[in-house]
Amino acid sequence: MSRIVLGVSGGVAAYKAALLLRAFTEAGHDVRVVPTPGALHFVGAATFEALSGNPVTTDVWSDVPEVAHVRIGQNADLVVVAPATADLLARAAAGRADDLLTATLLTAHCPVVFVPAMHTEMWLHPATQDNVATLRRRGAIVLPPAVGRLTGPDSGPGRLPEPADVAALAAVVLEGGAAALPRDLAGRKVVISAGGTREPLDPVRYLGNRSSGKQGWALARVAAARGADVVLVAANVEAPVPFGVRVVAVETAEQLRTAMLAEAGAAGGATADVVVMSAAVADFRPAGVAATKLKKGSAGEPTAVELVRNPDVLTELVGERAPGQLVVGFAAETGDADADVLTHARAKLARKGCDLLVVNDVSAGQVFGRPDNAVVVLAADGPATEVPRGSKDAVAAGIWTAVAARLTPPGRA
Ligand code: CTP
After folding, report:
1. Is the Cα torsion angle 313, 318, 319, 320 positive or negative in sign?
2. Which of 111, 153, 200, 381 qualifies as a FRET site for 121, CA 20 to 30 Å off?
3. pLDDT tens digits, residue range 71-125?
4. 253 near 311, Cβ under 8 Å?
5. Are 272 and 191 in contact (CB under 8 A)?
6. Domain coverage including residue 356
7. Is residue 66 scored above 80 in pLDDT?
8. Is the predicted pLDDT of residue 412 greater than 60, yes or no?
9. Mean of the per-residue pLDDT values for the chain?
């Protein structure tokens, strides 16, 4: 259990803070909500008190003997400000202490995560961008806003990311500190495949696999939080799209191949700096797809399904790799009588020709759909980096650290 301060400033997205609060308390954390006076125009103190089980005040004149304006910040393990309005970012950057939340920000020694939400014009204004740069320079994490529907008819960057995404990233910071979400992918394009392909047999049936897409989703969410421009080539995953991520939906291995080769190349305007194949791609597909539903008892009733090989997308991506581009593969391996997991993985890395291979040991039945994971990142030129067991987002952060260390510095590709 950690002590989280949830700061809420006065924007309409304050209603989502109640859901974020709920996610924190359900994860077992003790949450103290510190709204600004403006936030209480949108959500009442009673809502935050009932959901957190803690008192809620906005000014420094309550609980004076407790010295709340100092103690709340001092005692916190993490401060998350969601939504962080343009005004709140400005006051935090200026170091003001004119309400309990800004006073708390000045006394917190722990990591601080700002989750901005405002109209696009306000977000893009140089004043706001300067304030964000100041806060980041001082070590705060400022997440990029989501792109989408804003208050009224407007749409663009400025939306509060979904509470589930913020909660997942907050957990990464609780596990790994502010260093788990550096801005080391800023200005980089990363392309990630996730999910599992479906290979049709007829208009209603397919051959598929159990991949949940959770690890790929976590990779996308963490890369966006670390500043990357993220494209997620998603094979049959229903989960909501993480903020700041462009999704290309595909179904089959062939569609995934076309999308990955295009996005790794210049699709969307830029060549990818990193290409990650975390999708479970079917190695085989039915040789033919029936135009109408296969019916039992009919003349066309199948007795066997003939399969043909699918292309190996990872190997093709390696073959078409742009200068300076890193290609990362995934492998779920088990040890056997011939060799252990890492020996099999090294052989696969050499066979596929990729730069890095993220290895999952699935010997102990730790397979698809679990919320946590542990991996080893093998590099073609030698080192192996162990990423310890943690949430899939924490593992994603470990993978990105291993990848970012090998990126060519900008301008030298
Ligand atoms: N992969 C791919 N295209 C395929 C199959 C797999 O791009 N047709 C990618 C996966 O996305 C993963 C990597 O290759 O990044 C390794 O997948 P895996 O299934 O372990 O590789 P295979 O070559 O199929 O190895 P095995 O013979 O062990 O099944």
Report:
1. positive
2. 111
3. 999 999 999 999 999 999 999 999 999 999 999 999 999 999 999 999 999 999 9
4. yes
5. yes
6. 189-404
7. no
8. no
9. 94
Q: With a cut of 80, say whether residue 208 has pLDDT above it.
A: yes
Pairing of strands 146-149, 155-159: antiparallel
Question: How far lies 174's CA from each of 12, 107, 171, 294, 394, in Å?
Answer: 27, 18, 5, 52, 10
- Count of the separate structural domains present in the chain: 2
Q: What pLDDT is attached to residue 147?
A: 84
This prediction's pTM: 0.95
CA of 311 to the centre of ligand 1 (A): 10
Q: Catalytic one among 75, 209, 310, 373?
A: 209
Of 237, 368, 259, the C-alpha closest to 316 is 259
Distance CA(164)–CA(16), nearest Å, equals: 10
What is the distance between the alpha carbons of residues 380 and 348, in angstroms, rounded to a whole number?
A: 10
209 catalytic? Reply is yes
| Tens-digit pLDDT profile for residues 218-242 | 999 999 999 999 999 999 998 988 8
The average pLDDT across 377-391 equals 93
For ligand 1, atom 12, name the residue with the nearest CA.
330
Residue 413 lies in a domain: no
Establish whether residue 123 lines the binding site of ligand 1, counting it when its CB lies within 6 angstroms of any ligand atom. no
Structure confidence at residue 271 (pLDDT): 96
Ligand 1 nearest atom to the CA of residue 316, by list position: 7
CATH, residue 206: 3.40.50.10300
CATH of residue 19: 3.40.50.1950
Could you tell me how many residues make up the chain? 413
Pair 168, 196 in one domain? no
Cα–Cα distance, 378 to 384 (Å, whole number): 4
Comparing C-alpha atoms, which of 248, 390, 411, 412 is closest to residue 401?
390
Note whether residue 410 is domain-resident.
no
User: Measured from the CB, is residue 279 less than 6 Å from ligand 1?
Assistant: yes
To test ligand 1's pocket by mutation, which of 277, 363, 375 has the most ligand atoms within 8 angstroms of CB? Answer: 277
CA of 175 to the centre of ligand 1 (A): 31
Domain boundary pick from 122, 157, 180 = 180
Whether 175 and 204 map to the same domain: the answer is no
Look at residue 386 and give its three-state secondary structure: strand
Model pLDDT, residue 403: 97
In this structure, the answer to whether residues 169 and 96 fall within a common structural domain is yes
